[in-house]
Amino acid sequence: MLELRDVDKIYRAGTQEVAALRGVTLTIEAGEYVAIMGPSGSGKSTLMNILGLLDTPSAGSYRLFGREVSGLVEEELAVLRREAIGFVFQQFHLLPRLSAAENAALPLLYSQHRVDLARAGELLGEVGLGDRAHHRPNELSGGQQQRVAIARALINRPRIILADEPTGNLDSGSQKEILAILRRLNDAGITVIMVTHENEVSREARRLIRMRDGRVISDETTGKGTKQSAGGMAKPAPPRRPGVRDIAEHLRQGLKALATNKVRTALSALGILIGVAAVVSMLALGEGAKRDIEQRLAGLGSNLLVLRQGPARVGGVTLETGATRITVDDVAVLRERITAIRETAPNVSGRAQVSYLNRNWNTSVIGTAPAYARMRAAEPDFGRFFTEDENRSRARVVLLGRTVARELFAGQNPIGETIKVNRIPFQVIGLLPEKGTTAWRDQDDYVVMPLLTAMYRVLGKSYVDYVDIEVRDAGLMETTQREIEELLVARKRVPPSQQRDAYQIRNMAEIQSALAETSRTMSYLLATIAAISLVVGGVGIMNIMLVSVTERTREIGLRKAVGATPRDILVQFLTETVVVSVTGGVIGILLGVLATVAMSTFAGWTVSVSSDAIGLAVAFSAGVGLVFGIYPARKAARLNPIEALRYE
User: Fold this and answer.
1) Are 200 and 69 contained in the same domain?
2) What is the rounded distance in angstroms from the CA atom of residue 52 to the CA atom of residue 404?
3) Does 279 share its domain with 339?
4) Where is 329: in which H helix or E strand?
5) Distance in angstroms (rounded) separating the CA atoms of residues 505 and 565
6) Could you tell me if residue 244 is inside a domain?
7) Tens-place pLDDT, residues 190-237
8) Cα distance between residue 372 and residue 343, in whole Å
9) I need a surface site. Which of 61, 350, 406, 517 has the fewest CB within 10 A?
10) Domain ranges, residue 460
């Protein structure tokens, strides 16, 4: 069953070599009860570790069930440990956060059997702890903890029990109980190999192997006879299907581990929480700014040129500008002679006092042509726009922006009412669409009236301030701009020295493109800042998980001893990291949404939380957990089981 031939084990510390085992040769048959005895430093524990596949020999051959194990990889050794060997340690190695039943069932997590707490309870009953199944280790005596360890060793129905000083930390009463249990197990056909340094304990075995200085110095029977194997392992429990059950069990284990140190878990999640909140709020702010800009761009119109008079300069000195002022007749000539122009809307602007009953408000006045409504996306939400006939007749009609309507009418319907503009009565015929507030001005604080009415009745101007010009095709914008300048310079007889700055023409398509590009750049910048905060949170998680791996080194060693493969350990720690990250991400989303609401409410900023931003935040937080959790998880997975169990 177990066969060692000329096994050596040498430990190296720098240039020093220590031989723990020297030429050990022995065979242990199925069903034997063997005690390995010797003083400290004799090599008995090292031999036990090699027999239990927790360590490997430096030289020699070790065959288990007829199979040479010295060349097996770690995953294959883990499978053999969990399927054939049960460990009983002197230090018990129970996980403090798990109940007695959960500790006993721990090996099932890594085996082909279901995690069956009922079976764990039955085994606890067999070792006399049926009424303590739900108690934590700190609620049990030393003898009771060792019985839990024995139940854990039996959960996978092993053929071999390896007991390393199983009574070393127990009182005499508990010692007798544990030895009686081991005897019953051997009577049932299980091979029991026990390491001890006590003569009284060794006499319980049917075979006694004595060691000194890494060598076997005697191998004898105790006269109690050899118990033969009962003939193989008991029928295994039905295999479980991998998948959802695996994930659920790893998740449950991860939550228990995280709940053990709530403060550390909260600190781990804090960095991700802040990062995700930043992602959500920054993206919401960027999306809101984008929509705000898009809304304003829509108000600029398409294929639009804006013509203004400009001061002529000679040597940096501003000259008289009257000669370059634009009149209504100039606008008519432009539209008539330049075929690329589809529509024009000359405009004047100024400030005026408006009043209704006992309410007064100072606002902007825009005088314009009927084409303004379409060109500037200003079709009224209620009422109508004025006509060309009303413009020619200088009709006293006006359309109100939302702010003016609110200040004068306080929520009442203004259509058909009469207000005064600079003490001149005007009939309200329409309510303009809401444009919103930017960081620097209220875009709804204005009134619109016919151009000629504003020029000659309200503002007293004989010229226009600027002209909106709609071009038929975007490809004709530059050509049309040049033709407008040439025509006006010739019509106004502008001297050559003043022609360069005589008129200013802004291409709104270029402005639209620049604003859109600025919006995209700001969105990328905000997203980058938020992503950096998430990465910082990920680094924090990695640091804390590295501390967790160090603190839980013995737990990792125990899990490997009961059959966990490196992949199992990797998945366990990655699960914990992702749980922390996603939890922090979900809370961060809530805080991010609250932050955007606060920005909208108190700062008046336009914000927009999209489902894409929320999905991106969740995915990114989980991704950060995976990326920054992989190093601590790999470090845990690579730990040597026996070194981990010895870690102090």
Assistant:
1) yes
2) 87
3) no
4) helix 328-337
5) 74
6) no
7) 999 999 888 888 888 999 999 999 999 998 987 665 555 444 433 333
8) 9
9) 517
10) 304-508
DSSP secondary structure letters along 32-68: -EEEEE--TTSSHHHHHHHHTTSS--SEEEEEETTEE
Number of domains in the chain: 3
Same domain, 14 and 72: yes
* Boundary of a domain, candidates 508, 541, 575: 508
Amino acid found at 137: P
Question: Which residues are CB-neighbours of 305 under 8 A, at least 6 positions away?
Answer: 468, 469, 470, 471, 477, 480, 481, 484, 505, 506, 507, 508
Helix (H, G, I), strand (E, B) or coil at 296: helix
Q: Which two tokens stand for residue 21?
A: 């085992």
Strand 33-37 relative to strand 207-212, pairing: parallel
| Residue 276 and residue 214 share a domain | no
Query: In which element (H, E) is residue 479 found?
Result: helix 477-492
Strands (E), 270-314: 304-309, 313-314
Tokens of 436: 């919103």
- In this structure, the answer to whether residues 398 and 499 fall within a common structural domain is yes
Neighbour count for residue 340 (Cβ, 10 Å): 18
End-of-domain residue from the set 238, 263, 284: 238
Residue 87: beta bridge partners? 162
Q: How is residue 457 annotated by DSSP?
A: I
- Residue 174: the pLDDT is 82
* 3-state class (DSSP) for residue 550: helix
CA-based R_g, the chain, Å:
43
Q: What are phi and psi of 448, to 5 degrees?
A: -125, 135
Q: What pLDDT is attached to residue 316?
A: 55
pTM, entire model: 0.63
205 plus 326 within the same structural domain:
no
In-domain check, residue 435: yes
Q: Which range, 20-24, 526-530, 626-630, is most confident?
A: 20-24
For residue 103, the domain's CATH number is 3.40.50.300
Do 427 and 444 have their domain in common?
Answer: yes
Residue type, 580: V
* 111 neighbors 126 (Cβ within 8 angstroms): no
Closest CA to 569 of 577, 560, 580: 560
Residue 249 within a domain: no
Does some domain include residue 247? no
pLDDT in tens, 82-92: 888 998 888 88
Q: Are residues 188 and 222 in the same domain?
A: yes
Residue 395 half-sphere exposure toward CB, CA atoms < 13 A: 20
At residue 609's C-alpha, the angle toward residues 604 and 610, to 5°, is 150
Nearest by Cα to 607 from 282, 296, 275: 282
Q: In whole angstroms, what is the distance from residue 624 CA to residue 232 CA?
A: 48
Q: Take residue 486 and report the two structure tokens written for it.
A: 């040439």
CB 203 within 8 A of CB 182: no
